[in-house]
Amino acid sequence: MAAKKKTSFYHTRWNKVGINEQIASEVLGVSLDQVQEWDKNGAPEIAERLLLLWDKKRINIPGWEGWMFSRGNLRYKGKQWGPETILAARYDIERTAKLEGQIKQLHSWKGLLKIANHLVKKKVRNHWREAS
Hints:
Blueprint: H1 8-17, H2 21-28, H3 32-41, H4 45-55, E1 56-58, E2 68-70, E3 73-76, E4 79-81, H5 83-106, H6 109-131
Antiparallel strand pairs: 1-2, 2-3, 3-4
Helix pairs in contact: 1-4, 2-3
């Protein structure tokens, strides 16, 4: 017995967009049974188009060539970033900039004196702890 040929909707859902029946039903606003029916017997063309639109949204702005949003992530050349990754990177960039500013301050005479003062106070505190 030959396997039944899969419908265009099934190939779009599974092979092009890469989502399971549950996610497809949520995206399209239909029941799981309806998605399974469309997998077997075909679906309205608009259902396939909606899945394709949901999956990949290209950014057509100069300087953003090749970038797209797909499945909730920003993608470029095989790499992807979710919102939490982007926010974490932003935090790291701000932290790095702050540390670079502090390093610049430390390389001044004023900064060096501040470090020396801090080390002397630390040495005195340790001396008094050991003496107690």
